[in-house]
Design goal:
There is one protein chain. By secondary structure, the chain is α/β, with parallel strands linked by helices. It has three domains: 7-127, Ribonuclease H-like superfamily/Ribonuclease H (Nucleotidyltransferase, domain 5, 2-Layer Sandwich), CATH 3.30.420; 136-232; 237-353, no CATH class. It is built from 13 helices and seven strands. It has helices at residues 7-10, 46-59, 78-86, 99-102, 109-121, 136-168, 181-188, 197-232, 247-257, 266-273, 296-312, 314-325, 330-353; strands spanning 14-18, 23-30, 35-43, 67-70, 91-93, 278-279, 288-289. The protein has a five-stranded mixed sheet. A two-stranded antiparallel ribbon has the order 6-7. A hairpin with a 4-residue loop joins strand 2 (23-30) and strand 3 (35-43). Helix 11 (296-312) packs across helix 12 (314-325). The longest helix is centred in the middle third of the chain and has 36 residues, at 197-232. The radius of gyration is 26 Å and the shape is globular. The two termini are 37 Å apart.
Length: 359
């Protein structure tokens, strides 16, 4: 049996960082003894981060194997994590700490930084959560995907509000079904008219909502165009040739995967996507339950690809029919497809990003 390597045995020093908007608090531990060497607070400015890195280098003899464990490596600690990584240090996201872990320890920024480092010491190295890279293409894709999700949610709210408004007020539009794009375009061109006050206000609000929806449609189209250009210049470009993968689903996959080496293997990627069945057996009962965790945006992307393949891909439809004859429900078949797709995505991205051998 292969021994599991833990953080305390793999890194000469561990730096725990409690991050905030204005200042970060740093705690340096020596894993061999668990000794807290020193704590210090630095501003979050570029100068403050550089001072913090220089201070850690002095206290750790500039050992580049020093592990930095940063709370909020995708938010308050994002700039710090990126800067530390460019200096050649390994970086990990702080482990989640529940109330039981904190009980009896107390609460302060210094104690939090110390506890982040201490909690990491016993973790297997392969369980460390590596933050996503914040370089040009990946960060740009991540920003655009986040913006798209916000715009899509805003559009859904506005469409629902518009439909509710025209159904509750007699504005001269057929609202028995949801308004079509053509109807929304017509509503956006309505002019004010002489009518009862409440209808006049309702008409004005309908025009505003319709214009907002149409404006969001233009922004979403521009967003997809930008994503298409970025994806074609990234490691994820080959995924666009796979059946069912469009620009948006591919962008979400790239955002979750981030870079070669972040996710240790395809099983870990399936767990990240929330498509791995979780054992829930007891005694003679053997069963599995759904994984409700993971990256739900990635899970949603795989779900849409699975639906597309089940509808339009002949090979997938044949697979679906075969599994139906075995007694599988469509929901169970989708789960199998999503697990297969996560494996396919992981292998494709890793193969595309792997260093090429040159002679």
């Amino acid at each position: 049996m292969t021994a599991i390597s833990i953080v305390a045995h793999s890194h000469p020093f561990v730096v725990g960082v409690d991050t905030h908007a204005r200042n970060h608090v740093y705690a340096i531990l020596a894993p061999a003894t668990g000794t807290l060497l020193e704590t210090r607070e630095f501003p979050t400015s570029a100068a403050g981060i550089n001072r913090a890195i220089a201070w850690v280098a002095r206290r750790t003899e500039a050992d580049v194997d020093t592990l930095w464990v940063i709370e909020g490596a995708a938010s308050y600690g994002a700039v710090l994590a990126g800067t530390v990584a460019t200096h050649g240090y390994p970086v990990a996201e702080a482990p989640r700490m529940d109330a039981k872990t904190r009980r009896g320890v107390g609460k302060s920024d210094v104690l939090d930084a110390h506890q982040i480092a201490v909690t990491t010491l016993g973790l297997p190295v392969h369980q460390l959560r590596r933050p996503r890279l914040n370089d040009g293409v990946r960060q740009s894709v991540r920003i655009l995907v986040t913006a798209r999700e916000s715009m899509s949610a805003d559009r859904t709210r506005s469409v629902n509000a518009l439909n509710a408004l025209v159904r509750a007020n007699e504005l001269g539009v057929d609202a028995r079904k949801k308004l079509t794009s053509a109807q929304m375009s017509e509503v956006s061109r309505w002019r004010s008219r002489e009518e009862e006050l409440s209808l006049s206000v309702a008409r004005s609000e309908a025009v505003r909502l319709a214009k907002h929806v149409l404006d969001l449609d233009e922004q979403l189209t521009a967003n997809e165009t930008q994503l298409d250009e970025l994806i074609k210049a990234s490691e994820a470009a080959p995924l666009l040739q796979e059946k069912g993968f469009g620009v948006i689903s591919t962008a979400k996959c790239l955002t979750a995967w981030s870079h070669h080496g972040r996710v240790r293997d395809e099983a870990a990627f399936a767990s990240l996507a929330g498509v791995n069945p979780i054992p829930a057996s007891s005694g003679n009962t053997i069963r599995y339950r759904l994984n409700r965790g993971g990256d739900r945006s990635l899970n949603s992307a795989l779900h849409m690809v699975a639906i597309t393949r089940m509808t339009h891909d002949a090979e997938t439809r044949a697979y679906v029919e075969k599994r139906r004859t075995e007694g599988k429900t469509d929901r169970e078949i989708r789960r199998c497809l999503k697990r297969y797709l996560s494996r396919r995505v992981y292998r494709e991205l890793n193969a595309s990003a792997a260093p090429k051998n040159t002679v």
